[in-house]
Specification:
The protein contains four helices and no strands. It has helices at 4-36, 41-44, 58-84, 105-116.
């Protein structure tokens, strides 16, 4: 016959130990992040300029930005259409963002692997 009291005690102790260890790991990771994270460069660099910078007219800037955005969106749409073998009328790009070079080594390796895996 099964002693349900002992079984319940084992389950509760097991779950308690697991969650306690997970909480300890979480706190250790938070402490390591605070100690080992690189300092932001925004706090340490101060730039002062004495010259007056030329004022860019907002209308010209928005026209150039819209023109550049249109070219970028057209190129992205063409690439997506070519990879999916579909018409550009079926695809609508709502937004995009640049990834930049701040991506981790794992991120860059994954991107290059996905780009070159067909070759």
């Amino acid at each position: 016959m099964v002693n349900w009291g002992n079984a319940l005690l084992v389950v509760v102790l097991g779950l308690g130990i697991v969650f306690t260890v997970l909480a300890i790991i979480m706190f250790v990771l938070i402490i390591m992040e605070k100690l080992l994270a690189p300092k932001s460069k925004k706090d340490s660099i101060t730039v002062e300029t004495t010259e007056k910078e030329p004022v860019i007219q907002p209308q010209q800037q928005t026209l150039e930005t819209q023109k550049d955005d249109g070219e970028i969106i057209a190129a992205i749409t063409a690439a997506i259409c070519a990879s999916f073998n579909t018409s550009p009328h079926n695809i609508r790009i709502k937004s995009y963002r640049r990834l930049g070079e701040s991506a981790s080594a794992w991120n860059r390796a994954s991107r290059s692997e996905n780009i070159y895996k067909g070759f």
